Amino acid sequence: MKSFWKDNGYLVIEDFYSKEDCDNLKKRAQYLTGNFDQKSYQSIFDTNKEYHANDNYFLESGDKIRFFFEDKAFDENGNLTNDKELVINKIGHALHDLDNEFFNFSHRKDLDNIAKSIGVLCPLLLQSMYIFKQPRIGGEVVCHQDSTFLYTKPETAVGFWVALEDANIDNGCLWVASRAHKGPLRKLFTKKNNKMTMISLNDTPFEKTDTPVEVKKGTLVLLHGRLPHYSCENKSNKSRHAYTFHVIDGNADYPKENWLQRPNLPLRGFI
Ligand SMILES: O=C(O)CCC(=O)C(=O)O
């Protein structure tokens, strides 16, 4: 497994979580969404747009539990096109620390062992997201490298992505550019003159993201911070729920220019 990870920049571990673990987390997300007052704030998560450079609801969500809508969640009058449970894009970004169910799902000794065995010696959980990929309207996540958004010096970000439902090409599974984690970091989302900006570091186009990661419910997928990956729109009638969290190494420097800051919530490890 370690050599596959080293060569390919990703790793699929089947049956890491039980079906019951997945169902419990889905229920918890449903509960949280049910209690969210949709009128409190209406932020759309759309990776085709400006990366939320001016959206404080997003930029201040690193130490909170906040809700982001699909692009197609609203009609021309600004009303929801469906029940809020069916038009939320994702919940982020501190579920793993602030909610008990998500805490227990994320803080585990076996995850700590995995992180350490792939070289993250002092793993800290930086962010978490519950991604709904709703039937018919689940938005595309454009091709990116996670270190663009979760940058450390040296780079240490690793994504832990969990399929809470079967994910396949039809319902918008992940696609990766296998082995391309050996390429350069292309972009950096960073604060300049008090404003978040996407700066270009290297113009080389992304390698072809030609590997679909079709996996069963309960599978854990690890993603190297430099691995280009994306997911398509979900045009099918089936949702594709996933829970993802990212770790960094506490021994690396975490720039204050990164979008995600947690002034009142120190980062914690898996255990
Ligand atoms: O689940 C998805 O569709 C995208 C997830 C992703 O890009 C990530 O976790 O870094």
What does this molecule look like?
Strand 8 and strand 9 form a beta hairpin. The two termini are 23 Å apart. By secondary structure, the protein is α+β, with helices and mostly antiparallel strands. It has one domain: q2cbj1_9rhob like domain (Jelly Rolls), CATH 2.60.120.620. Strands 1-11-6-13-4-3-2 form a seven-stranded antiparallel sheet. It has a four-stranded antiparallel sheet with strand order 5-12-7-10, with no helix packed on it. A two-stranded antiparallel sheet has the order 8-9. Helix content is 18%, strand content 25%. The protein contains six helices and 13 strands. It is globular.
Concise synopsis of the structure shown:
Helices cover 18% and strands 25% of the residues. It is α+β, with helices and mostly antiparallel strands and 271 residues long.
Q: What tags apply to this protein structure?
A:
271 residues, Jelly Rolls, 4-stranded antiparallel β-sheet, 13 strands
The count of β-strands is 13
Count of folded domains:
1
CATH superfamily: q2cbj1_9rhob like domain
Please tally the helical runs, counting DSSP H or I stretches of 4 or more residues.
6
State which percent range the strand residues make up.
25-35%
Sheet of most strands? 7 strands, antiparallel
List cofactors, ions and other ligands.
2-oxoglutaric acid
**What sort of overall outline do the alpha carbons produce when their principal axes are compared?**
globular
Order of helices and strands: HEHHEEHHHEEEEEEEEEE
CATH class: Mainly Beta
